Amino acid sequence: MEPVEKIFDTRELNVNMGPQHPATHGVLRLVLDIDGETIVKVTPYVGYLHRGIEKLGESMSYFQALPLTDRMDYVSAMSNNIGYCVAVEKLYGIEVPERAKFIRTIAGEMSRIANHLLWLATHALDIGAMTVFLYCFREREWILDLYEMICGARLTVTYPRVGGVRNDVQQEFLESLWKFTDEFPSRILEYETLIDQNRIWLLRTKGIGVISAEEAVNWGMTGPTLRGSGVPYDIRKFMPYDAYDKVDFEVPIGTVGDTYDRYRCRMLEMRQSNNIIRQCIEKLPAGPVMADAPKFTMQPKDKMMPITHPTKQHAFFIKEKACKGCGMCLRACPAKAIFGEKKKPHAIKQDMCLGCATCYVTCKFKALVIVPAGKGLSDEKLAELAEAPVPEEITKASEYLVRQFEFVKKGPKVPEGEIYVATEVPKGELGFYFVSDGSAKPYRMRVRAPSFVHAGCLPRLCAGHLVADVIANIGTIDIVLGECDR
Ligand code: SF4
Ligand code: SF4
After folding, report:
1. How far is the CA of 334 from the centre of ligand 2 (A)?
2. Lesser CB count within 10 Å: N end or C end of the chain?
């Protein structure tokens, strides 16, 4: 072959894209080696958002570390929570009640829809479609409103709990969610009408970032990023958890493995999620939402309500003779209601006391007592009541309260061993690996985050394409750097 005669001499350029770039979806830095407009090489640099979640997790009990998972992929916090809880439940060896399983499946699929909506909104915006962005946010807001109805939070939810869910769902929530699922398919049609056959969208996504099924598997891709290449791997089907074995759904796959196929997979997945939610609402069984395993789970708060009830029918009182004046309760009291000098008996200002019971569990000398008393009783009367036998109701509630404190502060000990449990979150396979040394904290905690693996595939997807296609390739793998950097 005759060598092509070059009219101009060109040289490769080395340019930075990010870490502060609107299309990198977080603090991702890509170093691009370009020849004119063509990408020769892409090197992703992650780590700008390092949160040390894995190391923090090793310094906390399994129960305490749950809210950390909200901060990983903050776009789908609910799914991260579920993944973490499923893993810890396997480690504890506890079974979640059926109702809680269905509720978690509903919450997980809501999270998948909310994630895919944000992905579509930003992916389309990056490529130049503004209207889809606004439409998707309209529905995502609706989902976040529904989140608020079940747990009072929109972003960092911490609703699923080890052993079940924090609280049961109300009928009002189920009715609102049903209405959402009634309307949502027509909203998906609206998005598709805007972009599905749009010439610009097709030019920017078809044939871009093509990866074969074999290569995608070898690169460790999972979720819709893998399924776009035609591999029907979905953990919800292969290793069902929660209520996925009790609902019918399909796993959409692509054929070519390009950006367009991955887009189609996610659109079809939203429809499947909608169907799963409807099936779960129809099949939702009655029953408890927390496992019956007091050693491993947080029990309902109403068991200690006799003590901390806001009407304050019970008061906390320091027995003068038993108090050593160590000051522990004084330092712990959030209301600054305790006063006293060092090594002298302390006392509580009853009108400032919130009834939180922190002092009760803090005192090592058992100098604090709970007395059944109405508001405004004199200290003399309280002292008199403190000497009287404590009613059984209070004794039980105070025992429960102490157990609750110990559970939250120290956590239950788990048997020695190691475990890896994966769940299907919207971005792919989210796995938690724990090594237990028999204590209440993980000896090692590692997270297999799909965004981290997918960010590593960018050099393969971008090579040979144009600079503008880097944007489409970042969008198509749907990464969030909070999870990537952990
Ligand atoms: S913690 Fe107990 S002993 Fe120490 S000051 Fe308070 S009531 Fe007294
Ligand atoms: S019950 Fe709570 S608010 Fe009241 S004195 Fe004890 S620590 Fe302070």
Report:
1. 7
2. N
Name the burial class of residue 74, with classes exposed (0-12), middle (13-18) and buried (19+) by CB atoms within 10 angstroms of its CB: middle
Does 333 contact ligand 2 (Cβ within 6 A)?
A: yes
* 10-residue stretch averages of pLDDT, the chain, 486 residues long: 66 84 80 88 88 91 92 92 95 93 96 96 90 94 95 93 92 96 95 91 91 94 95 95 95 93 96 97 94 81 62 78 91 90 89 83 86 68 71 73 80 90 96 94 95 93 90 91 84
The ligand whose atoms approach the alpha carbon of 307 most closely is: 2
Same domain, 178 and 217: yes
Q: How many angstroms separate the most distant Cα atoms in the chain?
A: 107
Between CA 29 and CA 44 the distance in angstroms is 6
Which residues form the domain of 315?
Answer: 301-409
**pTM for the complete prediction?**
0.85
Q: What is the domain-level CATH number for residue 334?
A: 3.30.70.20
Domain C-terminal end among 357, 387, 409: 409
Whether residues 174 and 198 fall in one domain: yes
- Rounded Cα gap, residues 360 and 371, in angstroms: 12
Give the end of a domain, one of 409, 424, 446.
409
Same domain, 130 and 238: yes
In the DSSP assignment, the letter for residue 339 is: E
Could you give the CA distance from residue 367 to residue 340 in angstroms, rounded to a whole number?
14
Task: Indicate the number of domains in the chain.
Answer: 2
Is residue 371 a contact partner of residue 385, using CB atoms and an 8 Å limit?
A: yes
> Would you state the pLDDT for residue 407?
83
CA–centroid distance, 321 to ligand 1, in Å, is 11
